[in-house]
Structures are given as structure tokens and as C-alpha cells.
Amino acid sequence: MDELAAKAGITVRTLRFYRERGLIPPPRREGRIAWYDDHHLARLRTITALLERGHTLSGIADLTAAFESGRDAGEALGLVEPTEETPVRLTPEALADHFAGEVTPENLAAALDLGYLAVDGEEIVHTSRRLLDVSAALVREGVPLAAVLAAGREVRTHADALARLFLTLLRAHAPDEDIARLRPLAKNVVEAELSMALDRHMAKGPATEEAEEPDESTPPT
To answer: Is 69-159 a domain of CATH 1.10.10?
Structure first.
């Protein structure tokens, strides 16, 4: 314990406090000897970095619990192989830097549930660099991360429907071995249609958009 505290730059008393709060896992024991390893040191350095970024110990404990309840990287990435997306490995403090002030247990749990994030030891894996960059850009523009994740869940539903539509079309008219080669055509169609849909809705203006929303106070007949 003395060696671990010295390497982490904290006191033994602080280390004991972190153990009592469940912020670090228990050591491996051999008789009366407790062995700590690099994972404990990495966790302590993460705690220090998150404290420096304004997180509280209670918040860090909640984040740790959310991380430990998430799927591991092998499971998450195995669900989407083969993929054209590039995974990104992040430390918890690097993730906090991407979404300053927005990495809450609730947002973390939502991202883990969506499969955007996975856990690999002391590291976090974001399954798509493109989604990470876009999400961070939206947050920097003032869009709350919770709203970004909620929109992502809705986009996922529509994307699944589009994928099924395109695969059904191809499987009816093309051999299976050609489907991967024709995959870019589906993305081009979706990108073009989304671009034109944005043109149409932006031309209408916000007043028209709001007028088209259904009145939820009146039950349908």
C-alpha cells in the first residue's frame, strides 16, 4: 500500500479512503500480504485527473460503477464486425475532456447501452471515431450530451429500418457475395436523401416546422 500510494502521489490515508469508498478494486491477497498492480495505479491516476477536472468523489464513484457494469470491448466490438468504423481508445479523463462537464453517470449509462462505448480494463473504447467527433462537436456548439444521445437512439431506429430495406432489396436481386461490394450504394442513397430532406425542412423555416407538429392534447379520432 505504501508503494502504491507513493507511485500515485497520494497519502496512504487517502488510498485507504478510496478503498473504503469502493473507488478502487480490492488487492490480491496472499496470506497477510496485499498486492496491488498497474490497474490499481491507473485507477488512482484517473481519479486524480477527474478530480482536477472538477468531478466530485461521489460522481467518480457513480462513473466507476457505470463503467464496471458496461460491456467489455471484445463483446461490443464483436457485435459489429466487420465494420467500416474506426474504434477509438480513451482514458476516462480523455473522455471527460471531449465532453467537458457532460460526462455524467446517466449519459455514460446511455452511451454504454447504445453500444457507443465499451470498457477494456482501465480504458474506454468508443466504437466509432466519426460518431465521437460529431458528438463532441455538437456538445461544443451548446447541444447537451443527453439530447445528442437521445437523438442518437432515434437515429439508430431509422438507420436499422433503412439497413433492412436495402438488404432486402439486394438479397432479392443480387447474390450474397455482392452485398458487401454494393454496400456503399446504400450509404450514398441515404446521404443524398438526408441532404435533400434537410434542404426541404430548412426552407420551410422553424415556424412552419412547429405548425406541422401534431397537437398531442387532442386525441386522434
So the answer is: no
